[in-house]
Backbone:
RNA sequence: CGCGGGGUAGAGCAAUGGUAGCUUGUCGGGCUCAUAACCCGAAGGUUGUAGGUUCGAGUCCUACCCCCGCAACCA
């Protein structure tokens, strides 16, 4: 395939930390990025979508030690598990990076050396509160009543030799960038970062000697490189930057089924280098600072371009609190996908979080949304339309006579593509998907306004055929635009309306034939209606 | 006086300074193509509190109350 004329689009999730079970909090960023990646592909972009896992650090070492296994033995099954989760949720990532990948570790060492030789990393002494039994340095704010939050014992002042990164050197430059551009959105987050910089940046301790589960400093092996440089740099090492031959990496996935719309053209390792700078780093708000201050500082020091944009989204809260295993409020995405389909979970996640804000999860909300939007609106619209086409015309309808209602309706159908694109440009997946669903809702209104059953009785078959054609057009266009968001349902719809599944938006704007022949088989039921009360009970019993 | 976000019908959310809307739930009506679905209508609000600016404030300003996050080397 000729890729020279294609515009590139590089999008990333954070790399996730495998310290416990994965929950729907982890799914949101990944699904949202997936929707944007798929959307851009259908717009004709050459997309590289990267996700992965951050596997070093003291917490993983500690968890592994407690289980009596090595860190890599601890981490491997969790990584397999998250890949399984992404497979269940149909995540079309092009690359999956692990910080334990050999090429990444080498690249991180090269980066560290480069920063050191440049003079932006220097050796000094880290001073802090230290809990000897836990072998952990703690900050003032981590302390609980002045004691260790884990073991509740007394902490002491302690010192440790460490390498420091000159974060302070880049503060002004980053502050300027944050205030003058839309580098970080929403704007409120940028303001927060600006204030943080104004409060004064300290240089950052970027190595540790208190544990060894990490990448070693190449010229001083008692130090391991800490999370900042190790994890953040995944965004460039995955592309091959700072690899052995500047281009050595191995994160690319095998080509997958074309139907999933995965990128099948990205298989020359050298070509990935040109994907930098990233078009979008997406993440939840708690790690904004690392991406909006520390990461740009590292890039500036490396003399690489900054990512074009960082989008920091809110959290999915559970009963108003942050989702966490210890509170026992973790919702298992495997169970939800299996019971209600991956599309149902994707739909909920994508439509639930309003731009930049936190949101809540409750099973009742989830089930209600599935019932009202997917079952009642989309599912029922498809079924009732198809069954009219089959009943009244044995499956064959064509464009014909129009009324005022029809004109209005067709205008709405034609406007949809542009409207959705606008929302995606703003990273607002929730508004994008709700825009599509507003056409679905309008379609149900259109049926009532035109009353096809009455047209049939009155023998106005030309108009009736046209109305049903318009409805199929609306279903076809909305399904096309829905493809990046729901990965299974649109295919089923295209199959039901006997149309070849579109792979890009341009070609999908008009039905060249001006007619449909959907056959006479029984109309498909896309989503079964849920008995919410019963489902809530079942989910509760599964949680035990 | 550390920094930032939020407080809007029962619930969940939306509103470039210009008629406070949407979804869900409740109540009433309609329709019969459809999965107890779909369509229409109604009820439901002192927009946290008190002031101020303005012809006009959910929106801007001031003070206060409540909730949440950050406060750097946990990720």
Residues:
């Amino acid at each position: 395939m000729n890729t020279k004329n294609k515009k590139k689009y590089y999008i990333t999730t954070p790399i996730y930390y495998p310290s416990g079970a994965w929950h729907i909090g982890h799914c949101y960023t990944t699904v949202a990025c997936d929707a944007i990646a798929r959307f851009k592909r259908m717009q004709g972009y050459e997309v590289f979508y990267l996700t992965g896992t951050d596997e070093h650090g003291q917490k993983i070492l500690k968890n592994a030690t407690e289980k009596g296994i090595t860190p890599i033995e601890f981490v491997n099954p969790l990584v397999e598990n998250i890949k399984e989760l992404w497979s269940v949720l149909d995540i079309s990532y092009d690359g999956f990076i692990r910080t334990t990948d050999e090429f990444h570790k080498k690249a991180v060492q090269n980066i560290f050396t480069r920063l050191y030789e440049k003079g932006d990393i220097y050796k000094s002494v880290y001073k802090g509160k230290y809990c000897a039994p836990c072998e952990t340095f703690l900050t003032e704010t981590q302390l609980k009543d002045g004691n260790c939050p884990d073991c509740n014992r007394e902490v002491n002042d302690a010192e440790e030799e460490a390498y420091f990164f000159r974060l302070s050197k880049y503060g002004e430059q980053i502050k300027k960038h944050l205030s003058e551009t839309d580098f970080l959105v929403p704007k409120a987050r940028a303001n927060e970062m600006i204030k943080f910089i104004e409060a004064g940046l300290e240089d950052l301790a970027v190595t540790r000697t208190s544990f060894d589960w990490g990448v070693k400093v190449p010229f001083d092996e008692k130090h391991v490189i800490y999370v900042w440089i190790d994890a953040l740099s995944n965004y460039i090492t995955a592309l091959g930057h700072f690899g052995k031959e500047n281009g050595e990496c191995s994160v690319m996935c095998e080509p997958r089924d074309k139907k999933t719309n995965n990128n099948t053209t990205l298989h020359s390792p050298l070509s990935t280098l040109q994907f930098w700078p990233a078009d979008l780093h997406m993440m939840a708000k708690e790690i904004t600072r690392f991406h909006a201050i520390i990461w740009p500082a590292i890039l500036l020091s490396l003399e690489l371009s900054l990512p074009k944009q960082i989008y920091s989204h809110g959290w999915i809260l559970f009963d108003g609190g942050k989702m966490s295993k210890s509170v026992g409020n973790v919702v298992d995405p495997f169970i939800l996908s299996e019971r209600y389909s991956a599309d149902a979970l994707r739909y909920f996640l994508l439509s639930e979080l309003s731009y930049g804000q936190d949101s809540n999860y409750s099973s009742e909300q989830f089930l209600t949304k599935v019932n009202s939007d997917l079952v009642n609106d989309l599912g029922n619209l498809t079924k009732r339309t198809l069954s009219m086409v089959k009943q009244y015309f044995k499956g064959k309808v064509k464009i014909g006579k129009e009324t005022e209602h029809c004109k209005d309706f067709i205008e709405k159908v034609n406007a949809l593509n542009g409207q959705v694109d606008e929302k995606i440009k703003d990273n607002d997946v929730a508004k994008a998907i709700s825009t599509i669903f507003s056409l679905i809702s309008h379609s149900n209104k259109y049926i009532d306004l035109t009353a096809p059953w009455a047209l049939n009785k009155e023998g106005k078959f030309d108009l009736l055929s046209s109305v049903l054609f318009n409805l199929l057009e609306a279903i076809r266009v909305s399904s096309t635009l829905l493809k990046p968001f729901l990965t299974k349902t649109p295919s089923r719809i295209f199959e039901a309306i006997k149309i070849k599944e579109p792979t890009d938006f341009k070609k999908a704007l008009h039905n060249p034939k001006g007619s449909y022949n959907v056959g006479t088989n029984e109309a498909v039921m896309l989503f079964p209606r849920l008995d919410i009360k019963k489902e809530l009970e079942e989910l509760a019993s599964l949680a035990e």
Notes: The first strand of chain A starts at residue 8 and ends at 16.
